[in-house]
Design goal:
four-stranded antiparallel beta sheet, mainly beta, 170 residues, 44% strand
Amino acid sequence: MKKNLYTLMLLCFAQVLQAQDNSEYRIIRSNLGSSGSSHNVTTTKGTYKISQSVGQASVIGTHYNRGYYLRQGYQQPSTKIKAKPKDSDDSLSAKVHPNPFSQFIIVRFSETMINDISVMMFDVNARIIHTQEFLAAQSIELRLRDIASGNYFLKVISGNKYYQTKLIKI
């Protein structure tokens, strides 16, 4: 019985060694909580950043499409992030006033709007606090008297173009 147990342990240990030799195996990040540490670990296959935290509860995931990475979770990487230039073809030209505001804002577009307009407003924790749909127009008015004072982000989408700005409610 003891001999069988040793044999089983030896087989399991050999399997672990073989799994770590797999060329597909890479440690990218480890997330365990909201406080912890980060270290760089160098192996024969490269240098990896290991980050850990204690008590964190989040869904972690990565999606890659056409050169862009989308990462979900509390710990965000500082590399392999691509951003489109602000003046790329998909940006809307608009002005928002008044900012700071107390009850409403007006968004005026510099170009002729032909598509319907979607508006989303986010708080500083990236939670959507207001959404609204409009027919195509050169200016739109958002009545926002019911939201609390603070800092917000506004995203306006029309067709495949968008406009983003920061707002302050007083």
